């Protein structure tokens, strides 16, 4: 269940209560070669996590019903190998110790930078089988230009 | 024998050697309250009288010159002097009266009976006169005391007669009206009220109907045209017999207070906007997020489309050249490019990205418009407004910050238009909604549950009622009385100014309406604003 095992493309689950955000994120990443699944709430995300292998989850924080942090907490228990990332405009509301506790490895801020987002995903989903690169992208991601959280 | 009843001091002035009469035993008949003291010289007697405790002097004419000297010095100011006419001569009696004796008693057979009667009468007369003097002095003191108060009162005071002419003014009144006391006396006060509707001339209503007014707001217009906001109380002036004489008005200049009020209003608005800013930033952030990303992707799509267009150009050139092989090769190239970049997808997604970005920018435009409406300082002018409309526009501003935790239910009934300051009322609604949201946030926390806020409007009692109900933590009964007090807050330091609800209360009160809170802690809390439709004086200050 490691990311990118075999020939399968890495699977990315994106959760956001705004359809247009999902659409734009998909658009940004469509040439990155991921298998992308999108859902509009945490409950649906948990159902997906139960049903199929997900290599990484990128979730909005402020959502009705269950917050992103709560979702990632559940996801950590259900599927420990799934890489957990948050995308939010509300960074100030989440204490850093909470992020560490939940094991959030990247915090993407809205509005996001396309290049930085791609770099971040390549870093966290990279490993054995890096996704297909598009022309012009650098081979080695620059650590200072992605959303990864330093431990 | 009648007695004096209360203690009296009598001085008997007589020669050292004994005479034909015994005034001391005669005076003892007045009772034990009569203290009789014997002195032998006019000087001693005058000295004794200095402490004002002496009620009567009885002097024997046998003293001769001493007696006359005493009369000369004390008859005008001192206690009454009764002269005992030792020799019984007409001359001595006449002389005694001429020099100011209060009475004269002849030393004869009835002396012992007459002296006490005369003494008593003189004492009573003296005391009555003295008491009256005291009373008069008291009245004089009281008058100057009152005068002092009135002159030094911080509030302005005016007394007008039945026709509204100024009878009295104190210095603050002169300052506010902008004229000296002399210039004011006898002038009708009506010109100073030229700038306000009839209903706001409280003094006139007091004169007409005898109504009393307490602490109402009005405006005075000085001769030079400057307007002074005042707080005024007025009451009828009535004499002892119940006749109306005029009216008294007490008022003070509210210019400073008004300025302060406006500042508080603005401060509170700024604080509310601060609370909102985060929510609005989030709401703008989301569309900004996808518009931003979409633009990047659209730039990439443009590159793709350029490649296809280049392929089309090559094919056209081949067709113009007429070489079939070249044409086929260019055509295959074009097909390959199109497949590689998935032109069908690019075209449809490009269109979708434009559409979604348009929606996003429309959302931002809307938010910015709402915010601009809100922050406009157009709170100076009253207007006839549809409360439903600006309640709803306020809801749309605060909605983004609460939508993850709150279900919003709206029940708007058709309402008559209300004369009001829309921006101020919007601030009230925003405060109530933000409070409702915070109460829900406090209750549900991270539990994942949602709360509900109901916005209801309905016509009620000649006005409109707007209620904001929430399912938040509620207000403890002991706090319910204090929530409208300035600076009362249960929020964490830095989270609330403690001015929100007191500002709301003031705004609603200024509209002539009411703001009431009911709460069942842990269940529901309702704030109800009632605003009158008619606007006699309320909102037009």
Explain this structure to me?
- The complex is a heterodimer of chains A (151) and B (541).
- By secondary structure, chain A is α/β, with parallel strands linked by helices.
- Chain A has helices spanning 19-29, 42-51, 68-78, 96-102, 114-125, and strands at residues 11-15, 35-39, 56-60, 83-88, 106-109.
- Helices cover 34% and strands 17% of the residues of chain A.
- Chain A has a five-stranded parallel beta sheet, sandwiched between helices.
- In chain A, helix 2 runs parallel beside helix 3 (68-78).
- Chain A is globular, with a radius of gyration of 14 Å.
- With 541 residues, chain B is an alpha/beta fold.
- In chain B, 49% of the residues lie in helices and 21% in strands.
- In chain B, the strands form four sheets. A five-stranded parallel beta sheet of chain B has the order 2-1-3-4-5, sandwiched between helices. In chain B, strands 7-6-10-9-8 form a five-stranded antiparallel beta sheet.
- Chain B is rod-shaped, with a radius of gyration of 48 Å.
- Chain B starts with 7 loop residues before the first strand and ends in a 9-residue tail after the last strand.
- Mean pLDDT of chain B is 85; it is low at 536-541.
- The chains are: A alpha/beta (151), B alpha/beta (541).
